[in-house]
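USER: If only I could read backbone structure tokens as easily as an amino acid sequence. It would mean a lot if you studied the pair and described how this chain folds. Here is the record:
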Amino acid sequence: MNPVTQRQTNALVELRNYGQSVWLDYIRRSLITSGELKRLVEEDGLRGVTSNPSIFEKAITGSTEYDEEIRSAAADLDAKGVYERLAVHDIQAAADVLKPVYEDSNRRDGYVSIEVSPELARNTEGTVQEAKRLWSWIGRENVMIKVPGTPEGLPAVKRLIASGINVNVTLLFSQDVYRNVAEAYIQGLEELAAGGGDVSKVASVASFFVSRIDTAVDAILEEKLKTARDAGEKETIEQLAGKVAIANAKLAYEIYKDAYQTRRWQALEAQGAQTQRLLWASTSTKNPAYRDTIYVEELIGQDTVNTI
């Protein structure tokens, strides 16, 4: 099959026709140095990359490709410092590969995400300072700093957006929390604009977790089945299995649409601001009884991202 035909029939590429971008929830050095990341971008329409400490842990401990740099860095740095150096180098390299996507999409895609330390999840000031430090150190405009959507994280999100730093707000499960995330983003842009900043150069996504909702709810449903009083109640409970996570995500999408149709938003949009897209996270199927693409197929929508 020639490359042109392959691109035309590639389902991942086709998702762009529906307004959805696919980002890869995975990173390791060999993915970049082997040219595989570049191939995924050019042939499969990959539009971004996300990472977290767990992903890096698997990459670093599951290979020997970091060993030489670890030995070199360990002479001067503690364990966290070594980790950060390894992670930052990979993020920089991945961002360079994705830079053409960033430019061609007018800053809508082409991002690589790196997460602040989980130890800062309840520390607003610490989160802001670490995010600014990572942003400056990485030195790539197509990077997003991941900040958890905790009560302490949301003020940090607003401050970082107001500082012109791209943010991936992560670990979102609740519709109410997502509504607060959207508000923090809009407030941050308003502060940036009020200070004379260029809102068109800032991007953000809200990472809304999906499959883990079903994991939790299905366990509750299984317990309820044990005490079901009749066949009708049992049937109702069984029909709910595997449905709640997708319904929760779709309701969050309704909040997204409402948040970005107000006059308040239109004032920012007139200055070039882009919406904070919902990013469907945790979309791998945890229950083997469900088809492996259920959280991809059911959540195709305009102005969304799916991490695969």
